[in-house]
Structure formats: C-alpha cells, structure tokens
Design a protein that fits this description.
This protein is of the alpha+beta class. Helices cover 22% and strands 32% of the residues. The longest helix has 11 residues. It starts with 6 loop residues before the first helix and ends in an 8-residue tail after the last strand. The N terminus is likely disordered.
C-alpha cells in the first residue's frame, strides 16, 4: 500500500482532532447546516470555525396572479452566525472558550437552541450579537 504524505491529507487528519466535526454533526441533527467562513456551504470544514445556516421554506410562485401548486422558488438560507474554536483575536481556544458571533436579533430562539446544542461539550461559550439582522447564505459564484 502506498502512504499519502501530502499536505491535504495531513490537514484532514489534523482537522479530525478538532471539535468542529462533532459540533457540525450535532448541528445537522438539530436541523441546521454548516458552512465555511463566508457562509458558503462546503464539505471540507475549517478546523478553526464554522458558520451556521438555517434553511427556509420555499416560496410558492404565481402565474398571472394564480398560485401554481407545484412551482416553488428556493430561498437562501439564513446565516445565523459563526462559531470560532481557535482564534487569538477573538480569544477562542477549542478546549476552553468558544466564541459564537450571532447574526440576527430576531433569531434569538434559533441562537439559544444552537447554544444548547453546544453546551454538552463542557466548554465556556461566549455569545456576541454582531448584526441585528441575519445575513443570507452566500453562493460560490458570487465570490468571483
């Protein structure tokens, strides 16, 4: 068997030691989605932080004022905030203090339930309100 020693496999192995994957799994079980730093859904997670998204119901479209029962438009998910696990500027350390930067004052129920999902890890969680209104999910083509 051939062993892989490239930097991407080392990055993947190091990131499994981070609590990000356990928290991401619990968030998905609770109905949330996880994303990268900019709010773009991605499979490979950053070991230092995750963004939290909440999907919204699709909107029914109409044709000349008549609602068509099978024609729906997908809405972008709400970007509820970021959970930082390792960041010196935010005073976050994965085994002591996690920092949750919340987006949206109206989404306090979602944010408090999110904090309840994080609490079982016996780590102090600092929550700060960064924006009064939740952001929207970012699509990858918008970044280009």
């Amino acid at each position: 068997m051939k062993e892989e020693n490239d930097s991407s496999s080392i990055y993947r192995m190091a990131s499994f030691a981070s609590p990000v994957y356990g928290v991401a799994e619990k968030l998905r079980e609770a109905g949330y989605e996880v994303a990268g730093r900019l709010g773009v859904k991605q499979k490979q997670l950053d070991p230092n932080m995750i963004s939290v998204l909440k999907d919204r119901e699709p909107v029914q479209r109409s044709f000349f004022g008549f609602k068509v029962p099978f024609w729906y438009r997908k809405q972008r998910a709400l970007h509820l905030g970021k959970v930082w696990f390792n960041d010196t500027d935010r005073n976050a350390a994965e085994d002591e203090n996690w920092v949750f930067e919340a987006h949206g004052e109206k989404e306090m129920k979602n944010i408090t339930s999110l904090l309840e999902e994080i609490k079982p890890y016996h780590v102090r969680v600092q929550a700060t309100l960064e924006h009064n209104v939740p952001k929207r999910e970012t699509y990858l083509h918008e970044l280009c």
